[in-house]
TrEMBL record:
InterPro entries, A to Z: Beta-lactam/transpept-like (IPR012338), Beta-lactam_cat (IPR045155), Beta-lactam_class-A (IPR000871)
Location of the Beta-lactamase class A catalytic domain: 45-259
Name of the molecule in the record: Beta-lactamase
SUPFAM superfamilies named in the record: beta-lactamase/transpeptidase-like
Catalytic activity: a beta-lactam + H2O = a substituted beta-amino acid
PANTHER family to which the protein is assigned, alphabetical: BETA-LACTAMASE, SLR0121 PROTEIN
Gene Ontology MF terms in the entry: beta-lactamase activity
Domain of life where this protein originates: Bacteria
Species of provenance: Spirosoma linguale (strain ATCC 33905 / DSM 74 / LMG 10896 / Claus 1)
Biological processes annotated in GO: beta-lactam antibiotic catabolic process; response to antibiotic
Family annotation (Pfam families): Beta-lactamase2
Amino acid sequence: MRLLAVSLLFSIYSFVTNGQSSQKRDAVLERKLQTALKGFRGDVGVYVHNLKTGVTVAIKADTLFPTASTIKIPIQCGLFDKIHKGELTYGQTLIYKDSLHYDDGIVGSLKDGAKIPLSEVVMLMETVSDNTASLWCQALAGGGTAINTWLESNGFRKTRVNSRTPGREADRTRYGWGQTTPREMADLMTYIRQGRAVSPDASEEMYRNLGRQYWDNDGLSQVPPDVKTACKNGAVNQSRSEVVLVHAPHGDYVYCVMTKNQQDESWERTNEGFALLRNVGTLLWQHFEPKSTWKPSAGYEKWW
């Protein structure tokens, strides 16, 4: 039993430190990204990992940033840990109460006493980033403390839930709902993809949820629509973030872009943060798929 525990800890350590020792730096891509980031009015962190070749780029990749809605990936992990332990059932029926209301999203617009499956609440958290659904899931997962314990035990040392989590009030004031680094958020997406989060079957279902993204007008808009992706993005006034795993023809790659202290706090498509997410999405697709002739149609922006 002790040997199994040691082996598991070594496996987790090997995953999380994957790169600090064995990954190869892509100097060409790093120069391209540095050029793309030049002039941005705020702080930016980027982490890119080609899962086939092992090459990486890390630009402020270990700096803490606000998660905004990307915190909903760790929340999902904490929730599925409860399901895996038999404390919840994925298909169980929940009853919505007005006391759960946070905003007027889909779940927050339900009538008091309405019935909804837990699986649909999770889907709405990940797909449309419904905030009331997400806070409900956070509570069902045992709260921020339980989710943070899962993160710590799985080797994610910097990613934390702050909101509604005892002892993390100062962090919430500084970072909001949660905090993470571009490297850890990209690694967490990879962790799920590789079947390591909670269990292989839990990881598979979580990854399916992350593959259904309504908010596809940022970095995702720069990837052909017939290419499979998993994604979560987030935005608050001074921060824009996106983590994406792309199943590209010549090999999967994962990346995370995060900003903070943005001077541009607008909510238009032209916001510097949103534009940066699109620029990085384009740059990475063209770098890893140089022979691709695909590009967004000339009129696609009119839909947004």
